[in-house]
Inverse folding.
């Protein structure tokens, strides 16, 4: 009997295997490909945040932080959230600092869901959503976002049909990864109405909240809508907005009852987040507005640069309203190459063209629903994007 059979993976994790992000990044390294798969910048975050973290280390702020987060960071989150939502929250009772938004998601599900509860989940989804549901024994009711009228959106009847007697929560991601959709006020009000009707809570992943590119599609906090302040748990993080993904500093904002559930799990998952990085995060949230504006302008330019190039080589491209991903239709390209689906295309792009992308079928409960698309990340320097374009044009043009 081999060692693997003696220590089997728990049944709840058996369906998930290795995350697609790790798989594609490893393949990119193997082939020396330009990595437009995993969504992390290839440049550093603002100096003011790094300097503040270094100063915290130098002055000895290196022991455990308070379980909910240092007061300075929770106060900065209060100001950050209040400025864009119009809501005033209590940092003592309504804000919890977590190890990135991924831990916030796990803590929310473990702390607020019971086995058998149902959660409405929009797909394509961030892959940790399903694993979080598996950990707490909840059941997903999927609502598929589909391409139409220049953006991905959901069908109202399908969403209504997903809510039922066992619905405990709806999981919302806006701006949306990977489609780039920024949910409109009308779409959010429908979600609000269904939450109220079914006495459900909303867990909202807003990590791309500042990465919105068109004034006609502003980010709206679901918690700011009438009737939603006390039934919405808002999750976000520092990493995407300030290009500090490796810091893993996130937070959860919610009414005291929701926060109590998050903290019940958080204290046993990580207990607290790295103290010096919390000090750096507080400075970024308080004083980093200029760096955010510069980042959004850069990403808007990279979105347009990469999108136009993808269209030139045969992809069907819709400019994302937010996030830093382009979901492109690869049907014409794969047809020319004799490839069947997104997985075959992404392996070909990585090994033969030298550009790594993500097959989004991994983000659907039925992979066939995502098989005609491919996801490219444009959170890179202009030099990286131009290097990828050169390889795409040489390999596919």
């Amino acid at each position: 009997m081999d060692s693997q059979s003696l220590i089997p993976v728990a049944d709840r994790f058996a369906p998930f295997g290795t995350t697609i992000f790790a798989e594609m990044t490893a393949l990119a390294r193997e082939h020396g490909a330009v990595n437009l798969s995993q969504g992390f910048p290839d440049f550093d975050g603002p100096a003011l945040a790094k300097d503040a973290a270094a100063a915290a280390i130098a002055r000895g702020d290196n022991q455990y932080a308070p379980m909910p987060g240092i007061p300075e960071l929770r106060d900065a989150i209060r100001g950050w959230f209040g400025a864009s939502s119009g809501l005033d929250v209590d940092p003592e009772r309504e804000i919890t600092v977590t190890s990135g938004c991924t831990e916030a998601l796990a803590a929310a599900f473990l702390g607020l869901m019971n086995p058998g509860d149902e959660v409405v989940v929009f797909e394509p989804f961030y892959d940790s959503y399903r694993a979080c549901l598996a950990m707490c024994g909840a059941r997903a009711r999927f609502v598929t976002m589909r391409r139409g009228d220049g953006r991905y959106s959901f069908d109202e009847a399908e969403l209504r049909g997903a809510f039922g007697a066992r619905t405990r929560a709806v999981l919302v991601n806006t701006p949306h990864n990977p489609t780039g959709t920024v949910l409109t006020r009308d779409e959010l009000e429908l979600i609000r109405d269904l939450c109220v009707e079914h006495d459900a809570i909303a867990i909202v992943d807003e990590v791309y909240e500042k990465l919105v590119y068109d004034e006609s599609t502003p980010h709206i906090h679901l918690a700011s809508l009438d009737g939603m302040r006390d039934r919405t748990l808002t999750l976000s993080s520092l990493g995407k907005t300030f290009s500090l993904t490796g810091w893993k500093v996130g937070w959860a904002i919610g009414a005291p009852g929701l926060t109590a559930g998050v903290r019940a799990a958080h204290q046993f998952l990580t207990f607290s987040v790295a103290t010096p990085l919390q000090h750096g995060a507080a400075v970024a949230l308080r004083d980093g507005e200029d760096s955010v504006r510069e980042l959004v302008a850069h990403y808007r330019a990279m979105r347009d640069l990469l999108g136009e190039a993808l269209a030139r080589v045969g992809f069907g491209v819709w400019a994302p309203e937010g996030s830093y991903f382009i979901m492109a239709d690869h049907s014409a390209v794969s047809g020319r190459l004799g490839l069947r689906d997104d997985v075959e295309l992404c392996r070909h792009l990585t090994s033969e063209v030298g550009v790594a992308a993500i097959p989004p079928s991994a983000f659907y409960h039925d992979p066939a629903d995502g098989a005609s698309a491919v996801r490219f990340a444009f959170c890179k320097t202009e030099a990286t994007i131009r290097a990828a374009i050169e390889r795409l044009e040489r390999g596919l043009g």
About this structure: The mean pLDDT is 96.
